[in-house]
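Subject: complex prediction, re-run

Hi both,

The earlier run crashed halfway through, so I resubmitted it with identical inputs.
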Amino acid sequence: MMQTKLKASLLAAGLLLSGFAVAEESMTGWLLDIYREKEVRPVDNKAWNEECGSCHLAYQPGLLPTRSWEKLLSTKALSDHFGEDASLDDETVNELLAYARENAADKSFHKRSRKIALATEQGEAPLRITDVRYIKRKHHEIPEKMIQGNKDVKSLSFCSACHTKAEKGVYDSDTVRIPNYPDWDD
Amino acid sequence: MKKTATLILTGALLATSTAWATPATDELFARFKSEGAANFDAERGKAFWAKKVKKDGEDISCTTCHGDDLTKPGKHRKSGKVIEPMAPSVNHERLTEVKEMDKWFKRNCNDVLSHECTAQEKGDVLKFLLTK
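This time it finished cleanly. Structure:
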């Protein structure tokens, strides 16, 4: 009797664990997953970190939808990347594109990426993260003097100027520190 | 005694312009020669490195992002991202990979000069960087 119970609970535990392992692959799974993340999935690709990160913050793929990454990450598009030549060899471009496609906002079950996916579902896919409606709205109430007019920030594009954990994919208001405005509170 | 010997040796090494030459720089020089360039000159490279060009209404050169002291980190003109020192004497990863050098020569020449650099220009710059 005892043994049957033990077996049953072991089986249940096993089922649960295997459930978690595949949890991120479906929406229901995401809801059930006790490990689901609130933020944006951190970058875990060496080429992405090195190639994107050599000029700017290696923005997580979960900050834009697939359609945006497909526009940005081609050999031709990279030769004029917001006015800069960011040319790469085909092999590297393909690796980056594959990584973006796997982890783009619309493929992610991370909460913030889901919101970005929703905000970019319709219409032209944005090229800039700062053109995503959700992101614009989130920053709408921050006075210009704290961003554009702030010599240590300058633009909304420099996430890590204020988001102290941007590199880890964490963008919640608790981790925001606006340079020169220590008293700012959401 | 040993210290003096080391100092002399270091001095001798630094005196030659190819102090930090690597198999990768050898390979590039050979390629630039095969493309018709010759007599690479560090002084010419230095002048090229510092030459100001108008871009977006601003005078820019290699030093705009890499800084005036190549043993110190630079800063990307637009993103503000820190650029590790260019000098191979303090940054031993510099000038060690052909692929990296090709990538950055292409990008940065296009960004600063709006066209690719010639084999001669690249060879001269490389010669100059090898002295740093």
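DSSP finds nine helices and no strands in chain A.

- K.
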